[in-house]
Amino acid sequence: MADPAAWPELEAAERERRRELVLPGAAVEARIRAGGGRLPPRLLALPLLQALELSGCGALRELGPGLAAALPALHTLVLRGNGLGPAGLGAPEGPGLGGPLPALRLLDLSGNGLETLPAALGGALGPAGPCAPGGPPAFPQLRSLNLTGNRLRELGPGLARAAPQLQTLLLSGNRLSALPGGLLPPGASSLLPLLSQLEAADNGLQELGSTIANLPALKILDVSNNELSEIPVEVADCPKLKEVNFRGNKLKDKRLEKMVNSCQTKSILEYLRVGGRGGGKGKGKPDNFDKEESKKKKRDKRQKKDSGDGEQDKLEEVNKLMIKILHIAENPAPVVVKVSPNIKEVRPYIVGCVVKGMNLKQGNALKRFLSAQIKLHDDICEKRTAATIATHDLQLIKGPLLYDAQPPNELKVMPLGRKEIKAKDLVRQLQLEAEEQRKQKKRQNVSGLHKYLQLLDGKENYPCLVDAEGVVISFPPITNSERTKIRKNTCDLFLEVTSGTSLQICKDVMDTLILKMAELNKFTLENKEEESVSDAESDMISEPVNSNPSQNAEQENSPLTVEQVHVVDMDGNLKVLYPSKTDLILVSSLLTVIR
Q1: Nearest CA-CA partner of 227 in 241, 206, 211, 246
Q2: DSSP assignment of 357-372, as one string?
Q3: For the whole prediction, is pTM greater than 0.85?
Q4: Which of 170, 213, 355, 428 has the fewest CB within 10 Å, making it most exposed?
Q5: CB-neighbour burial class of residue 85 (10 A; exposed 0-12, middle 13-18, buried 19+)
Q6: 546 to each of 57, 237, 290, 540, 555, how far by Cα in Å?
Q7: Do residues 156 and 184 make contact, with C-beta atoms less than 8 angstroms apart?
Q8: Is the pLDDT of residue 251 over 50?
């Protein structure tokens, strides 16, 4: 019989002060059942935990007491496909999510048996509840909430008050009869101002209310396979709506029903806007729809030409971007990064992945890619103080990789555009160059690598990423290696993001970088620039430019492939997997991810 007190996974996590923990449901089910169907109390002794996943454990019925208070740093909680029932998340004063989780960004409760939401998520509005009117929100940072595949019958306004920053709300496969329903009561125009994705397919929806127009940021609306007979014209008033799915509903307006099965979102919204409606004849003249649409297209085209105001449409084009995830189990030769204990006190966090299918040959594609990295370093990376990006030509890397810290007088690196040198001498050289810059320009500010030198102050050892042949390919936060430099013929890249601050900032930066790469690749392929085999950023190319037109066409029609990378400790125990199911969520409204 399983000993409910024996949790070697938790002991290891506590000993190593882990920030991420994945408990496979099948492996822990017997111990969960022996412990009364609750999470083990020892889990509450991990106050540094930032991400927790326990999925596929039918024995898990309750979270147990004190979770919110014991894990204040938790930003990702995935409890998918468990046995959480009607009371599994607890009451305000009871176990479970009874208290606020101020750092939580992603909550996945899909595939359970929830019938109502807990008080902390707005299921009850007691006068002293955590999300009572006027009180502080219980989940002020929550961006994504997945409640797919439960038994929910209604939602109340408490959810919007508990999670005011919510961007993605997934409700498919429940028993809801109305949407937004109590989530957005009449007159509540200030609730959920950032919600961009709302999915409620496969419920029993009989009403789609006009208050849906009170979601100013809504971009994706899916209410397919329900029992709707009308679509309110107010849907067309959502200013940013770009993707709707009304399929699988028996609409009274048969023309609209035909349109939802064959037309693009823009045409459907135009039809509603000029008076068509789900209930048949509307206030307008749907027979004039084609004429009105033609007039509007010409008018919009003239306005954009006259004013040059096409930026919003360009931004919204990002919604069509797509990437495909290749999982570790499907990859015959995955990249693995081992983490040395030496790095813990220097720069402990690293996330990696492989991106295949990038086109850097044409025109200024490489220059745009390098410029995008510089901008990300200045913005989301906070001038490399929060995180540092490094990109490498995958073909020039020999795995597995080692993330290590070495003394400056032993660490040798070949910086971009320079000869191999010891890190100690490189830093001294950069310091002298910085002093010379200050003298020449007569100002304190310096440029290039010189402005990052202060990030190494006080470090006895310097961080580095080393390949299987002992070659240093990265010296964060200062430089990449010339040996693995990106060139115009590079199409498969290894990406790394490191940080001394947090694992989450690494993931956020990587999410943003992948989104930017997908955007740049799409721009390059659509603009048909001439291929260039020489550039200021590129050396001699050792491989011929691909001139196979069929292969080029295939690449143009294929999404970028992102391969998962494991980060493990020296014993092979998993520390980080990127991208996991909980990654790329915050950019999901801009990027279609095929998992």
Answers
A1: 206
A2: -----BTTHHHHHHHH
A3: no
A4: 428
A5: middle
A6: 49, 48, 45, 16, 11
A7: no
A8: yes
pLDDT, tens only, 575-591: 999 999 888 877 777 78
Measured distance CA(64)–CA(47) in Å, rounded: 16
Higher pLDDT, 103 or 350: 350
Instruction: Of 374-383, 390-399, 562-571, give the lowest mean pLDDT range.
Output: 374-383
Residue 440 in tokens: 């020449």
**Contacts (Cβ under 8 Å, ≥6 apart) of 62:** 36, 37, 38, 39, 84, 87, 88, 90, 95, 96
Which pair of tokens denotes residue 200? Answer: 């409620």
Give the closest residue to 229 by CA, choosing from 205, 210, 211.
Answer: 205
Answer for the pair 111, 81: CB distance below 8 angstroms, yes or no: yes
CB 518 within 8 A of CB 593: no
Angstrom CA distances, 455 to 385, 388, 496, 499, stand at 7, 11, 18, 11
> Helices (DSSP H) in 250-330: which residue ranges?
254-262, 265-273, 289-307, 311-316
CB 520 within 8 A of CB 372: yes
User: What pLDDT does residue 488 have?
Assistant: 94
With bands split at pLDDT 50, 70 and 90, how would you rate the model's confidence at 244? Answer: very high
What is the model's pLDDT at position 223?
95
Least Cα distance to 59 among 79, 84, 33, 39 occurs for: 33
Q: What is the per-residue pLDDT across 226-235, written as a single tens digit (0 to 9) for each?
A: 999 999 999 9
**Could you give phi then psi for residue 321, rounded to 5 degrees?**
-65, 150
Please report how many Cα atoms fall inside a 13 Å half-sphere around the Cα of residue 417, on the Cβ side. 6
Residues 590, 164, 377, 494, CA torsion sign? negative
d(CA 26, CA 55): 9
The whole-number pLDDT of residue 482 equals 95
Q: What distance in Å separates the CA atoms of residue 86 and residue 115, rounded to the nearest whole number?
A: 5
Distance CA 200, CA 155 (A): 12
pLDDT above 60: residue 511? yes
Parallel, antiparallel, or unpaired: how do β-strands 321-326 and 220-222 relate? unpaired
Rg (CA), the chain: 27
| Separation CA 52–CA 101 (nearest Å) | 13
User: Is the peptide bond between 400 and the residue preceding it cis, with omega within 30 degrees of 0?
Assistant: yes
**360 closest CA partner among 177, 506, 546, 513:** 546
Beta strands in 535-582 (DSSP E): 560-569, 574-578
**Helix/strand/coil percentages in the chain, nearest 5:** 30, 20, 50
Q: Name every residue whose Cβ is closer than 8 Å to that of residue 221 and which is 6 or more positions away in sequence.
A: 198, 199, 212, 235, 238, 241, 243, 244, 245
Are the beta carbons of 161 and 122 closer than 8 angstroms? yes
Sign, CA torsion 573/575/577/582: positive
Chain centroid offset of residue 220 CA: 16
pLDDT band at 451 (very low <50, low <70, confident <90, very high): low
Q: Are 254 and 236 in contact (CB under 8 A)?
A: no
Q: What percent of the chain has pLDDT over 70?
A: 80
Q: Which residue has the tokens 């990449």?
A: 480
Instruction: Tell me how far apart the 2 most distant CA atoms of the chain are, in Å.
Output: 80
